[in-house]
Amino acid sequence: MGFRRTTRVVVTGATVAAVVTMAAVAQAAPGDPGQPRYEAGPEGVGDPYFPLAGNGGIDVLHYALDLDYLPPDPDPAPLEGTLAGVATIELRATADLDQFNLDLRGLDVESVVVDGKAMAHSQTDNELIITPRPKLKAGHDATVVIAYGGTTIRPEDIEGALYGWVTTRDGAMVVSEPDGSATWFPVNDHPTDKSSYEFAITVPEGLVAVANGNLVGSSTDAGSTTWHWDAPDPMAAYLATATVGDFVLDSYVAENGTPIIDAVDPALPASRSANLAKTGAMLTFFEELYGPYPFVSYGAIVDDDSVGYALETQTRSFFSRNASEGTVAHELAHQWMGNHVSPAQWSDIWLNEGWATYSSWMWSENVGGPTAQQSFDATMARDASSSYWAIIVADPGPYGLFSGPVYTRGAATLHALRGEIGDDAFFDLAKQWVIEYGGGTASTDDFQALAESVSGQDLDAFFTIWVRTGSKPTSW
Ligand code: TRP
Ligand code: ZN
Q1: What is the pLDDT of residues 212-230, one digit of tens each?
Q2: φ and ψ at 325, to 5 degrees?
Q3: What is the per-residue pLDDT across 290-322, written as a single tens digit (0 to 9) for each?
Q4: In terms of DSSP H, where are the helices of 316-401?
Q5: Which ligand is nearest to the CA of 163?
Q6: What H or E segment, with its residue span, contains residue 24?
Q7: Please, are residues 456 and 450 in contact by the beta-carbon 8 Å criterion?
Q8: What atom of ligand 1 comes closest to residue 309's alpha carbon?
């Protein structure tokens, strides 16, 4: 785009007012390359559930995370590790910035270098505040190198579930939904900013560091091993992992062509990971429903420790101590539904959990277990007076993100929608959803709009009854 032209005005008494107005307009023009008005990037992206999550004014293109990690001394407790990191972040300014933030919690920043120059910075509980000089004009791509580190603990989310960089006896379980990535690297911690990643993770020799994407290689020197991983697909920060522990790696190519790397803790009995062998058949099944698997690779991490849940960490799902068949299907389906198409805001979480749960219902039917209809019927058999129906599925609140109804009422909503618009439109919708919003984010309104356009039906009453009302639907 060309520069804006300013009209030269001869100032006379009569034109003063006009000149003042024009000057104000010219100054207010956002991003005008001749007239930058520098501002501080907001400390959050504006997600009402997590006001400090993410940051305004920046778009991260790539994270290169160089992590050096020492797990705890096994004896004695406490479970605390030592992390020293260098994060090299390629980001684009989306506003004229004299200050911007990244999210970082519980670790100390030693130095910040922007485009090769050391910069002033400060930290609050959740924010790393950087004041770049020269200031960053909108559209400028900057390289930000942050050296940081500290003691790792076992952080908890607002509901009290372990998340983030969770220190274990032999390493760390790294699972960060919804806003736990800030416990291990400086990050624009919101799904609306997806980025590619690369990792170099150095751990004591004998331990394995497992991250997202492809294993590039590992090298051992003087008692330490560095594991290199490359994750080129756009990824929301909560789906990044750098899990460390005692793992055996198993690599193979699934029947659909996707390279698989599983990492299983050898302390576990083989039965705990036996269902991973169904991954190839599941990939084929979900590709038929949702289209091609969207990423460079897949696989699972099964640790002998537990955060109390599994997580769909992108390309490498995490399982706590056991990988049941239903959960293996659930986390795999998330790769399309949640990871490739991610929630626009955290209130849209039912689009992740409803689709993943419905996917495991369909998988069960496919292998001769309970049918999707039977799982739906079991859900709808719950008494209307139960508090189960009280939450609003499309707005469960920050403390209700992972509550049962988000999963099973979300899945029941999809089954009811399938009945409402018919199989052809429903599976067309599933594929179109992935095509249209893959690589980005989408909201409940986006989903309703696509369902309406694919089916040709007005579905406002349907979505109001099923996801925007805190009571049991009266007919289905
Ligand atoms: N999203 C995860 C899944 O579907 C679940 C999850 C993440 C979770 N954080 C949680 C469940 C905290 C309970 C508590 O598998
Ligand atoms: Zn899930």
Answers
A1: 999 999 999 999 999 999 9
A2: -60, -45
A3: 999 999 999 999 999 999 999 999 999 999 999
A4: 325-334, 349-366, 372-380
A5: 1
A6: helix 16-28
A7: no
A8: 11
